[in-house]
Amino acid sequence: MTQRWEKAAAALQNTVVTPMPNNEPVVISEIPEGIRCIGIGTDAAVFQSVHAPEIALKVYAEEKKDKAQTEKEVYDRLGSSGYFPKCYGTEGRILALSMESGITLFDCLLQGVHVPRQAIQDVEDARNYVRSKGLNPRDIHLKNILLQEGRAKILDVSEYVLPGNDYRWEHLKRAYDEYYPLLDGRPMPFWLLETIRKWYNQWNRYHNSFEEFMKHVYRHTAFRK
User: Fold this and answer.
1) Looking at CB atoms within 10 Å, which of 71, 119, 144, 150 has the fewest?
2) Which domains does the chain carry?
3) CB 152 within 8 A of CB 189
4) Is residue 11 within 8 Å of residue 32, measured between CB atoms?
């Protein structure tokens, strides 16, 4: 396994991952033949090689390369758990993880795919598990939770060493409890989800009131309870 992911990682050494301002997704260039990008975040992009399709390679921007080792250390502390992918190791700014099936909760909203309450409970249980390991479950949002046969798997653990509560999950869970029954099974437009995401990222820097944020959404979109 180690030789397979290290060979795939070597092919990505010249791939450039550039972070963008305002918490926007990274920009990537120079993707080698036989490798495809399967995900983009604010610090890194995730790739899959045809030579090792069972492995996801998370490539951090050069400016964020220390996060690869930090994230590996978090996985080491979490140990074997069905709530998270397996971590195989790091090579510089590249982290090797198990490839996971399913779609993100963000894509569930886009496609109108039902998100069962069990998945929400799985995240709650995962957060308790993280705390039991002396870590802090942060940065849990729609794009880093996978739905796998009705259950949840969390993809990004890089911020679990940071202090404080960013309230992302608390607000997301409350939105599920109070508003999701009105949306369940109805595809949501990409532009609306992206607009709400950007508003939330800006607003959550200074506030933690769910009510105030929803008032803002009401005032500026056709989204209604």
Assistant:
1) 150
2) 2-98 (3.30.200), 103-187 (1.10.510.10)
3) no
4) yes
Measured CA to CA, the distance from residue 44 to residue 220 in angstroms comes to: 31
Q: Residues 79-116: pLDDT tens digits?
A: 999 999 999 999 999 999 999 999 999 999 999 999 99
Q: CA angle, 24 as apex, 222 and 74 as ends, to 5°?
A: 115
Residue at 114: amino acid letter: H
pTM of the model: 0.86
Three state DSSP letters for the chain: CHHHHHHHHHHCCCCEEECCCCCCCCEEECCCCCEEEEEECCCEEEEEECCEEEEEEEEECHHHCHHHHHHHHHHHHHCCCCCCCCEEEEECCEEEEECCCCEEHHHHHHHCCCCCHHHHHHHHHHHHHHHHCCCCCCCCCHHHEEEECCEEEECCCCCCCCCCCCCHHHHHHHHHHHHHHHHCCCCCCHHHHHHHHHHHHHHCCCCCCHHHHHHHHHHHCCCCC
Distance CA 95, CA 64 (A): 12
Amino acid at 63: E
